[in-house]
Design brief:
327 residues; alpha/beta; Enolase-like, domain 1; TIM Barrel; 2 domains; three-stranded antiparallel sheet
Length: 327
């Protein structure tokens, strides 16, 4: 039976990172290690206060399973024992890594999936005034896909216009993190379409997004805070065109793959996103990102430093993980 190690790590962000809910200067992550028969499986998660999580709470939830793990709890049993969220994510990904290490195979081989291919990630521009975001866009103008954090409704239009001016060839997607009203959306969406924005992520609060049902969508809408796992999918019909799959929301790779299949079957486009974390958190998500319309796994690019053995980035291209990292 695997032994458990749980630890907290802090990874400084390059400068700071601001969204509608506040500013961060470090990524606070929880790392799980499961060791059995000389093999070690690892998983990383990020707690999110928006969902009632904290680093301390996530660690306590994981620690409470120590005896159950010693008694034979496996990845399958974990799905029913913990609800979707950060704690289950770290454990689920650690189980997958451990299974791969013990089998001498890669996780995608265990899943019967094709070998993963490199993907292109969005690069996120932190929220700021129009001048600041325009300057950031100028520095990153060569990247093929930029994601803009927005927060102020109609005032956000100047920010997008500034980014478009400084990065005329980049694809653009925007994320309001629940900060707009339906009036803001109705005013902004046609204008953002004119600026070439391809997707608007979670414009309204999750508990108010019924207002999106039946409205005109000149730009594709993507559910983030409104979509956690497969159980939340049915409520999105008629409101969104896409869903953002994040392992910290789904509670791990197991449910993320299930959600992806269900979302595609229901006609939703797929975005794969992340919280601010290291390459250890991004590596499992790369399996979900295969074939996704939008990939946003730039967490390590926003940090001052990454893990000694991290993912290999070539500008905005992410290559599949080495087994020394995960999987």
């Amino acid at each position: 039976m695997p032994s458990l190690k749980v630890s907290r790590e802090s990874w400084p962000i390059r400068g700071s990172f601001t969204i509608s809910r506040g500013t961060k200067t470090a990524a606070e992550v929880v790392v799980v290690e499961l060791e059995e028969a000389g093999a070690v499986g690892r998983g990383e998660c990020v707690s999110y206060a928006r969902y009632g999580e904290s680093v301390e709470g996530v660690m306590a939830t994981i620690e409470e399973l120590r005896d159950r793990l010693a008694g034979g709890l496996d990845r399958v049993g974990l799905q029913a024992l913990l609800s979707a969220g950060a704690a289950r994510n770290a454990l689920d990904c650690a189980f997958w890594d451990l299974e791969a290490k013990r089998a001498g195979q890669r996780v995608w081989q265990l899943l019967g999936l094709p070998d993963p291919q490199p993907v292109t990630t969005a690069y996120t521009l932190s929220f700021g005034d129009a001048e600041t975001m325009g300057a950031a866009a100028a520095r990153e103008a060569a990247r093929p896909l930029l994601k803009l954090k927005l927060a102020e409704g109609p005032a956000d239009l100047a920010r997008v216009a500034a980014v478009r001016e400084k990065a005329p060839n980049a694809r653009l997607v925007v994320d309001a993190n629940e900060a707009w009203t339906i009036v803001d959306y109705a005013e902004l969406a046609p204008k953002l379409a004119t600026l070439g924005v391809e997707m608007i992520e979670q414009p309204l609060p999750a508990d108010a997004d019924a207002a999106l049902a039946g409205v005109q969508r000149p730009v594709k809408l993507c559910a983030d805070e409104s979509c956690h796992d497969t159980a939340t999918l049915a409520g999105l019909d008629g409101r969104y065109d896409m869903v953002n799959i994040k392992l910290d929301k789904t509670g791990g790779l197991t449910e993320a793959l299930r959600l992806k299949a269900a979302a595609e079957a229901a006609g939703f486009g797929i975005m794969v996103g992340c919280m601010l974390g290291t390459s250890l958190a991004m590596a499992p998500a790369l399996l979900v990102a295969q074939g996704a319309a939008v990939v946003d796994l730039d967490g390590p690019l926003l940090l001052d430093r990454d893990r000694p053995v991290g993912l290999h980035f070539e500008d905005s291209t992410i290559h599949p993980p080495a087994p020394e990292l995960w999987g």
